[in-house]
Queue: 3 jobs
Job 1
Amino acid sequence: MRMITAHLVDALRVFGFDAKHAQVYLACLELGSTTVLELARRTRLPRTTLYPMLESLRREGYVRLGKRHRGSVYTAESPAALAARLQTRSQAFTEILPELEAIRASVRPGAGVTLYEGSDGFRQLWERIFRSGVSAYEICTSGVGLTEFVREAYLVERIIAERIRRGIRSRQLIVDSPAARRIVAKDADELRESRFLPQGITLPATTITFGEEVGFITTRRENTMILIASGEIAVTFRTTFDLLWHAAVPIVRPGKP
C-alpha cells in the first residue's frame, strides 16, 4: 500500500482541505470502499474523530456513503471528478468577475493598512504596485536594503523588467554611495530619474509612493512591509518627496555640464 506523502497532503490543502481531512480523503482513495474501522487503522485517528470528518467530506462531495453487508462504507470521489468540479467553479467565477470588479470599483475605500512579511511579502508588495495601474511612482531608498529580501538578479530580471514592460516610470531619491552610483548609471534604460541624498545619512527603510498608497519596506531584521492605502497620506508623502527632490543633488552624467 502506498504511503500518504506530505506533498499530497499539502496539495489538497491548497484545494481547501485541512491536513486531517486530506489524510482521510487519501486513505479512502487508497482503500476503495472502506469502513470507519479500516480508516481508523490506516490513519491512526480514533473513530470518534473520523465520523464527523467523514460526514463533513460527504457533505462537500469528496466521499460517498454506501452500504456493505451490515455496515456503512465510504468511497472517495475520483480525483478527476474533483478536478472537473474545480474547473467548473473557476469558470463560473470567471464569468461573474467583471461584475464583481465593477462593484469593487464603485466603492471608494477608506484608509487601510496591510502588512507583509519576508521575501514573499516583498514580492506581494510589488505585485500590488503593478496591479494598481499607476504610470509612475516615487521611491526614497538607501539603495541596498532591497537586496536583503531578494537577490539583485530578481530585482533586475523580474521587478525592474516588469516595470519597464508596463511603462511605469519612477523618480528616485537615493543615498549617495558606490552601490547607488552603479544603480543610477542605468537610469535611462530603466525608466528612472534619480537624485542623490547626502552620503552618511541613515535611511534604513525604503518608502514607495504610488497612486493613493504608500509602501514601507523595512530592513530584513524587522522583516516587514507596510502598505497604507490613504489618499491624504500619499499626498503628504509625495509633497515631502518633492521638497527633498528640489533640495537633492542632481546627477551629472558623463559628457554633460
Job 2
Amino acid sequence: MRKKSKQQFIKFMWAIAALFAFVLFFTFAIYSPVAKSVNFVINPGDSVNVVARRVAGEKIVLNDSVFKIAIRLNGGRVQAGEYEIPRGASALRIAKIFSHGKIATVDILIPEGLTLRQVRDLLANSKYLSGDVECDSGQRWGAVCQISDGDIFPDTYRVARGTSRMAVLDLAYKKMQDIKKKFFVAGNVPPAPLRNWNDVLILASIVQRETPKKSEMRIVASVYLNRLRRGMRLQADPTVIYALTDGYGDMQGAPLLRDHLKLDSPYNTYRNSGLPPAPIANVGMHAIRAVMNPANTNYLFFVADGRGGHKFSTDFEGHLKNRLDWREIKRQKNPELQDVFK
C-alpha cells in the first residue's frame, strides 16, 4: 500500500512539474498581450530595468519580472533604437529583438527623375525620418551640404526608422559618387560631342525627364546627340520647365505654352545652343546607359503620342505631322487652351 502511495506521489509531483514547466513556457514563449503591431523606442543609456518597467507599463509584456528574465535568457542587455514589435510577440521574442538590436527599418524610395527640391520635399514628408532636410551651421554633413541636381542617385534606401533626412541624402550622394568613380575606372568614353561625366549627366537628366519608358531612352538620347552634332538647338521642354519653376521641375498641372519658350534663361534650350549648364534632375542607370550607348538612328525630332510614349521623325515635315496629331490630342483634353499650346 505504501509503495503504491509513493508511486502516486511521484506521479503527482511530475504532473506538478510538467504543469509548472508548461506555465513557464506559455508565459515566456507563447503568451502575448500585444494585440497589434506597436512601435517602441529604447533611448541611449536606458537600462534593462528602465525598459522592463516601460514595456510592462505599456502592456507589451505580462510584467517587468517576466521581461527581465527573458532578457537574461537572451544575453542580459538591450540595444538603443526604434523597434516594431509585431502582433502576438511573446516576452522571449521581444527580448531577442531588443538584445540583438533588430531595429525597425523603412524603405525610402527616391524615384528617378526628381529634382533635388522634389527629393527634399519627399524626405520632409516622410514620417519615418527625423531632422531637417537642409544643412545649417550646427550640422556637419560635409560635401552633401553643397549638392545640386545630378549629385544624388535615385534608389530605394533601407534605413532605421528615425534616421535623419540628411543621412538619407548623404547615402544617395555617396552612391552617385561611387557610380562616378566606377565610370572613370572603367575608362568609359562619352559619345561625341559629349566631353565628360558632367555632360553625360546633363543629357541623361534631359532624357530622364523626357520619357518614363526605359525602352525609349536610347532613342531619345540618339535624337539629342544627333541634334548636337548638327549644331541644332536641343529644344527640350524639360529644360524650360526647370527654368520656369526655379529648379523644382513640376508645372503642377499647368501646360507649357508657346510664350514660355521665350524665357531668358541659360536652361532654355529653345533659345540657347548646346547643353544647359547643369543637370535638371537626378538620374538612374537606365538614363546614363542610354546616353553612353544611344540607339543608332537618324532621328532629329520627337513628340508625345498621347499614350505615354513618343513618335520620332527624321525630318521637319514628319515632325509637323506628328505635332498636329499631338495638338489635336491636347485640344481634345483641354479645349479652352487650344490657341495657346506650343
Job 3
Amino acid sequence: MENNNKAFYWLYAPAVLFLAVLPLNHTMALRLTALFLTAIVALRIFIKNGAPILPLKLPLALWAGMALLSLTWSVDPVFSLTEIKVEIGYGMLTFFSFFVLTRDPGAWKILQRALLAGLAGTFLLVAVKAYQLGHAPSGNDWDWQHGYVSYSTYLIIAMPFLSLSLLGALDNKARTIAWALLPIYLGVAYLTANRMFWVSFCLVFVIFLAGTWHKMTDANARRKLLMAGVAGIILTGITFFSVMQMKAPEAAMSGTTVATTFGDSERYIIWQYWLDRVAERPLGGVGFGRDLPHLVYIKPVEWPPFWFAHGHNMFLNYALQLGIPGVMVFLFLLGAMGRLFWRAYRSDDKKIGLAGLAGLALLVAFISKNMTDDLFWRTDALFFWTAAGILIGYIQQTGKK
C-alpha cells in the first residue's frame, strides 16, 4: 500500500541527491555518500515491507560470477578486484536500492521528478558554462560533465524517462515540465556534437513510436501518429547530418559524403587492433576491468595513440576482459532484461505497458550508444542501473495492485 506519511518521503532525499550529482565530475565522495545513504533507506524499506521478489537473479549472478572467476587468470588480480567492486558492486547496490525504493508507489513520482530536475540542472550548468566562455561549450569544455561523450550518454539514458513524462501517462504534473525541457534537451544534445547520440535518439524515438502505434485502436489516430513519426525521423536525420558537419567542417566543405566519412573512421583501425588481441585470449581474456587490456597490450609511448585506450565497443571490451564466454554471459543478462521489459509491455495494464516500453527503449539506447564507444563504466553505468532499477521496481509494484 502507498505510504501516505509525507515525512516518510524525506528519506528519499539521498536518492534525489544521488540523481542530481551523478552526471557531475569531481563529485565522487558526495556521490558515494548519497548512494550509501540511499542503500540504507532501501534496506529500511526492505525490512519494513518484507522481502520483494528480486529480479534477474540468475543472469546477474552469472555476470558477477564470471567477473569474479576471472580473478583466477587475470594478469592483475588486484586491479580486477577493484574494478569488480566499483563496476559490479556499486552497480548492483544502485540497481537494487532503486528497485526497492520504487516499489513504494509514491516514490515513483518523486524519482521521476528528480530525474527531470537533475536533467534541468545539467542544462542550467551548460548555460552558465556558455556564459563564462562566451560561446557554446565544445571539446574539453565539457569536462564538468565527464566530457561530451559521457554527457551525451547520460542524455540518451534519460530519454525514455523524458518520453514517459511527455506522454503524461504516469505523472500528469511532470508533463508540462517535460514539454518545456524537450527543446532545451534537443538543443543541448546538439551542442555535444556527438553523432552516435542521434542514432540512438532515432532508435528510441522509433521504439516509442512503434510501441504506441501498435497499441492504438483508432485508425485515424494511427495515421496521425505515423505522419508525426516520419516527420520526427526526417528531422533527426537532418540534425545528424548537421552534427557531422560540425565534427568535420573541412570534410563537409570538400563535399565528402557520409559514407566516406564513416569509411575513413578510426574506429575500424581500433576494432581490428583489439580483435587481434581477442584472438590471442579468446576463452578468458586478460581479466575484468575495462582499462586492463590497455595496461597489458599498449606498451609503446608513441603508438598507438590515446584513442586506443580501449576497444570503443562494449561487447569487444567484454571479449578482451572475459573472452567469448564473458560476452555470452553479458548477452544473457541483457536478453533477460529485454524479456522482462517485453513481457511488461504486453501487459493489459497501460501503466505497466508504458514502463515496459520505456525499458525496451532504455536497452536499445544503452546498447546502440555503446557500439562505437564503451560508456558502460563509472557514471553512465551507475545511471543505467539506476534507470533499470526504477523501471523494474515500478513494473513489479504496479503489477501487484
